[in-house]
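#random but structural
TW: two for the price of one
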Amino acid sequence: MERLQAAIARAREAREGVGGEPAVRALPVAGAGAEADVWSALPVYQPERGVFEAARLVSMMGGRDGPAFDVVRTKVMHQMKANGWKRLAITSPTAGCGKSTVSLNLGFSLSRQKDRRTILCEVDLRRPSWSKMLRLKERHSFARVLTGEQGFAANALRYGSNFALSSTFEAARNPAETLHGAVVPEILAAIEEEYQPDMMIFDLPPLLVTDDALAFLVHVDCALLVAAAETSTVGQIDNCEREIASRTNMLGVVLNKCRYSGPEYGYGYGY
């Protein structure tokens, strides 16, 4: 908690500056000093045998579908870098579209970019699924991070040297209130201040089910919408695009669960 509070204070100072003037801060060299220490101090995630196959994490298995996520990764990285964005939300119109599968695949695909650091957080506080998908034994809770009850380091795992995951073991008691919390902006700024990630990705709840995702979208730079082929309707997608555009930047749409018999990829990306 002391480290988190100190990071929050530094983030507030960096944002406000001294005497109300914008602050200018030199970033540390990647892989050196305190920044490297906080990453190396995170517990390591060692997936059990077969976990990637069972969770459909094709970005780590290769094969026919794997390169599709690399294409999404490249397009996302290009657009975010061009606009100076660092925070990406991933959501869907309704449950069952595969947004968590897409989030994890994109995160693990980014983990292969060794010169970039990525943090992936599970913000679906009502129906978390990562612990089951990744067979996590830790009872982590990104909800406790967002409320300031615990620090990020106590609720995160590291895969390799440049990819960190913060999962949610069980449903939070008051998810909407947590995501509406006044301290959320400072918590997110503190994580960025301490870990200096190139990108932070947030797996949000579906947009048309509760107001949870709407509450969090104001804290990100852009959002990616995951729609399910033959399930998500054009009306749902249009509605979601309007809701996203009213709060942040609409990055694109991923069409998931495509069933092609030919050599085409099973995932699509568009606007």
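TW: number two ↓
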Amino acid sequence: MMVAEMLVELGYRVAAEAGEISEAIRLVQSTEFDLAILDVNVNGKVISPVADLIKARNRPFIFATGYGSSGLPEEYRDRPALQKPFQIETLARMIDDTLKSAAV
């Protein structure tokens, strides 16, 4: 199941989706959102520039990766990461934990 479909099933609204780093950068700058889920590798490019912008906006985000936490950009290894493939229940828990942490 695709992440967007999982989010809708969990009752969330998907504000935007991007398949390219440049598109994601534009969306981060122009879209209101409460939380972002970032695939670490988008078409062979590391997602760090997008994560940097989200961090600057002080918004929470979760990485999705098939490489575990060691696959995260070094400066973001303290961030939450979903190990792909993941189940909808795991996604729900990670979102809940991340939003609670951001509210503190």
